[in-house]
Structure prediction request, 230 residues.
Amino acid sequence: NAGVTQTPKFQVLKTGQSMTLQCAQDMNHNSMYWYRQDPGMGLRLIYYSASEGTTDKGEVPNGYNVSRLNKREFSLRLESAAPSQTSVYFCASSELLNWDTRAGGYTFGSGTRLTVV
Amino acid sequence: QKEVEQNSGPLSVPEGAIASLNCTYSDRGSQSFFWYRQYSGKSPELIMFIYSNGDKEDGRFTAQLNKASQYVSLLIRDSQPSDSATYLCAVHTTNFGNEKLTFGTGTRLTIIP
Prediction:
């Protein structure tokens, strides 16, 4: 029962370098999300994918791109890293809220701590 | 006005006492409300959700919702040192089938032995 798996857990980049953060879920969820978390700022949505084949911008999409490779995988790419992108990145997945059982809520991966120097 | 507001704390509560965490939200169309607990260096984990006005109890935790006042709270009874964490309030809305979960900045809770 892995849930949501993120790789890598830690990464240091130099300004201008590129990298892709990987995320995979095994819960058969339709929706997947990328958040960043900074001190005093809470969790901010970067991009989300409501279903396979669709992606949409969140609150802070500049400097990022995403790919919903299939139902399980949702990757986040930094094309040219900047120090302002130093943060902890969380991937999450969810199923549409079940109004019968009222079950819902997001499951988060363990996070990627990214430092851009 | 922020969409979801929480007092950042820190909130210090003696062990065994009741911890009360509060959250207000701005979107009257919000449908469900979640409380996440986040230990330092870890990912958020869901502890409760509520969608109807009133109280919902789960063990030592009680979530309270007042949609008219746009207010949701979390009570932790018999607080334990293991409850020391940051508590994130999250508000869920659905727009044309797309879900959105907006988080507050969190309240840091410290339980004093």
